[in-house]
Recover the amino acids of this structure.
């Protein structure tokens, strides 16, 4: 209901703008957001990217965004509204918009679409994502060093490959420091519910975890960790304000450079369907300052970050043993290939848990 | 702190906003008005509660701002359904949409700010009792207030003349009107009480639960409160049990996962709603007169003029 209204409102706004005289030569760019722009996490970072892009191109570009668009079939209407309103380039910024984006793209062959974190493309649909597991690897190393109880607490959203590969990357790295390290995983089945995220953090700490990591979008877990005197990693954005003594680092998503590059291509008429999967090297993710840890741990983290950027350190380096004890096939020779990471649906050895629904 | 104590403390915190919002809705529905806008009133209460507390530095002022915001929004609902006799279901849904938008508007400049949370009670000696001390004597004011409110509401509904009239209005507004009771005024007060409770429940989230404001932070708790009223079959005693049961299921499923018990989390998340459906079936099959819902629930009343 709300979505329809939002979409309708956006259409009205877009329509009224398009009658303006100057609107004709402006490139219209649309964005579909999962959460509110003020979520301080995932959507907030996408919006920072949009603003950086606007700053770059000034009055050559005009943007419209729809926030709070839930994933799944319902998002189709919102995406179509943007296409119908004359947007030539549309960014759909969550995994769950994959099928709806493709469906709308087939109806509007002259509009270009960019889908974040998905794996299905078309001639007018590109995909882009961050190699978040690179950041997770560094977090795993830090966690392995900093955990006194040897138990990590992990708040997970949905059992999709991106989240599972994050858990695996963390554990593989942590195991190189402490082979007996354990992880407790709680699936909250939501990207965004501050209360539930806080409750999950409390439950994990009460069960002995002393380092909290999350793959959900609000700073609630950071705040709980700070309150309980534990350590935590931020997610998506800088969360140091919510735990000055708790945040070790944070994987910050940095979409600005990508949005600038894609809009530039669109303006120059060189846009084509691509798959961009960029990491620390391309600065699509950036690590927040390493804080609240001794100097040797900080040094280790910085060295790992540099090595990943140089391509010397591969988070999914073989051999990798799956939870069931079988060795995972190494499709890229020395490490897992991108397809294996993008479709990851198994846990590595040492995780005492079951993937929900498996 | 033992694990059981920690779980009980978390359950109390998780149940309190549900109990507060559901208490208000119970009284509203007992007067025959179905207000589906609880989620909207809650989120506006959260935004205004945070704004009030942040601007003045006082949690009490924040709580009052949250309540007032809930009341203001409920008056919009009252205007539509009581004065203009609009369909209550449609008006309630519209109220939620309106509330979500308004809260984003009010709250946008407070996103990212922090406040200190509501203080917890501390009575030397009593609060220090192992296990029971912190559970019984170490909560914040919202927890005690939520219990006081439902006890007060129960006493009002069943032990006072005013409560009897309110229930009469909810069961048969035509008869109540014929007896000379001001049906619309009574309903308006019930709606306002519901708004105040929902606003307070919303304010509890940024003031005590997770001390920051983010748009959409109620995350469906208003809808759970609505389900809770049905679950309680409109009885205050069952409402308390239901609120803590719903809260307990939420917390226990998190702990079950952390402990690796292997119960599907999706199933546990759905459990409160499943319980509500089962209770509805049991109510309708009960031999003692079928539904316990207020007979005039959801019907508009237009007095003869």
């Amino acid at each position: 209901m709300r979505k329809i209204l939002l979409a309708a409102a956006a259409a009205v706004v877009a329509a009224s703008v398009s009658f303006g005289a100057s609107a004709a030569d402006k490139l219209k760019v649309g964005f579909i957001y999962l959460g509110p722009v003020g979520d301080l996490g995932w959507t907030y970072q996408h919006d920072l990217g949009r603003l950086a892009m606007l700053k770059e191109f000034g009055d050559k570009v005009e943007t419209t965004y729809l926030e709070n668009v839930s994933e799944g079939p319902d998002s189709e209407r919102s995406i179509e509204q943007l296409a119908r309103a004359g947007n030539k380039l549309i960014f759909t910024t969550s995994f769950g918009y994959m099928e709806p984006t493709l469906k709308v793209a087939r109806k509007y062959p002259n509009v270009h679409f960019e889908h974040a974190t998905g794996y299905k493309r078309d001639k007018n649909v590109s995909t882009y994502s961050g190699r978040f597991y690179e950041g997770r690897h560094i977090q795993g190393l830090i966690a392995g060093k900093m955990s006194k109880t040897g138990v990590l607490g992990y708040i997970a959203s949905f059992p999709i490959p991106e989240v599972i590969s994050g858990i695996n990357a963390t554990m593989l790295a942590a195991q190189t420091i402490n082979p007996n390290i354990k992880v407790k995983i709680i699936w909250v089945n939501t990207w965004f519910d501050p209360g539930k995220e806080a409750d999950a953090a409390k439950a994990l700490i009460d069960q002995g975890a002393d380092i909290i990591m999350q793959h959900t979008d609000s700073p609630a877990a950071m705040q709980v960790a700070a309150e309980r005197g534990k350590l935590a990693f931020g997610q998506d954005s800088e969360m140091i304000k919510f735990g000055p003594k708790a945040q070790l680092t944070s994987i910050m998503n940095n979409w600005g450079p990508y949005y600038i590059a894609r809009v530039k291509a669109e303006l120059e008429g060189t846009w084509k369907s691509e798959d961009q999967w960029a990491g620390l090297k391309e600065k699509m993710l950036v690590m927040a300052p390493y804080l609240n840890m001794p100097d040797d741990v900080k040094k280790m983290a910085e060295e790992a970050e540099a090595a990943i950027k140089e391509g010397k350190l591969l988070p999914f380096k073989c051999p990798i043993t799956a939870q069931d004890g079988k060795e995972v096939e190494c499709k890229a020779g020395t490490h897992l290939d991108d397809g294996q990471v993008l479709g990851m649906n198994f846990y590595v050895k040492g995780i005492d848990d079951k993937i929900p629904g498996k | 702190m033992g694990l059981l104590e920690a779980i009980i403390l978390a359950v109390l915190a998780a149940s309190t906003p549900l109990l507060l919002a559901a208490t208000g809705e119970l009284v509203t529905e007992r007067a025959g008005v179905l207000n589906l806008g609880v989620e909207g009133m809650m989120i506006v209460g959260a935004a205004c509660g945070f704004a009030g507390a942040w601007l003045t530095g006082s949690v009490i002022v924040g709580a009052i701002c949250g309540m007032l915001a809930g009341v203001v929004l409920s008056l919009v609902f009252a205007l539509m359904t009581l004065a203009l006799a609009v369909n209550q279901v449609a008006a309630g849904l519209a109220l939620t949409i309106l509330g979500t938008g308004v809260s984003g508007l009010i709250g946008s400049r407070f996103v990212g700010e922090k406040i200190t949370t509501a203080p917890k009670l501390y009575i030397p000696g009593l609060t220090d009792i192992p296990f029971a001390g912190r559970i019984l004597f170490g909560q914040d004011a919202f927890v005690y207030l939520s219990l006081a409110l439902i006890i007060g509401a129960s006493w009002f509904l069943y032990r006072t003349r005013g409560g009897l009239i309110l229930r009469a209005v909810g069961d048969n507004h035509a008869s109540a009107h014929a007896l000379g009771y001001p049906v619309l005024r009574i309903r308006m007060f019930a709606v306002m009480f519901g708004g105040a409770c929902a606003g307070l429940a919303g304010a509890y989230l940024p003031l005590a639960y997770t001390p920051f404001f983010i748009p959409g932070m109620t995350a469906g708790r208003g809808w759970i409160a609505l389900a809770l009223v049905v679950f309680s079959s409109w009885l205050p005693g069952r409402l308390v049990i239901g609120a803590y049961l719903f809260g307990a299921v939420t917390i226990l499923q998190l702990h079950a996962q952390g402990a690796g018990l292997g119960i599907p989390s999706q199933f546990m998340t759905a459990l409160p709603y499943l319980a509500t459906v089962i209770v509805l079936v049991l109510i309708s099959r009960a031999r003692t007169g079928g539904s316990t819902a207020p007979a005039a629930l959801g019907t508009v009343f237009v007095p003869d003029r």
